[in-house]
Here is the input.
Amino acid sequence: MPTIELDELTHSKVIFAARVMGCSPSEVVSRLVESWSSAEEAGTEPEEVRVHAVYRGERVSGLFDPATRALTVTAGPGAGKTHSSPSAAAMAVIHAINPDRNPSVNGWSFWRVTRTGEELKSLRRPPRSV
Here is the structure.
């Protein structure tokens, strides 16, 4: 059977997910891959993605909607507000925490995908043509 190497942190998260889901670690990975593959095959985007940012030592959480590219801040400064883009959400967070700073920032680099730790731009796809 083929194997996959994981770093220790990812491995412990997979083991934890298996306990919570009541299945094997292999099934956790299989379900994750299947959920992304099914969305890709159906031509749809996955559901909202949990994201976060740490700015000046303050953690802010949010939900990114790949279909609309809107980002809702769920915890931290500005919680409960939905912004039209990751950059608009990032600028609102920066302004709330540090109002003296020019808040211009690239939101695709500011936010991190909570599941992977990668910058949000790792999920960025060009807009679909109609």
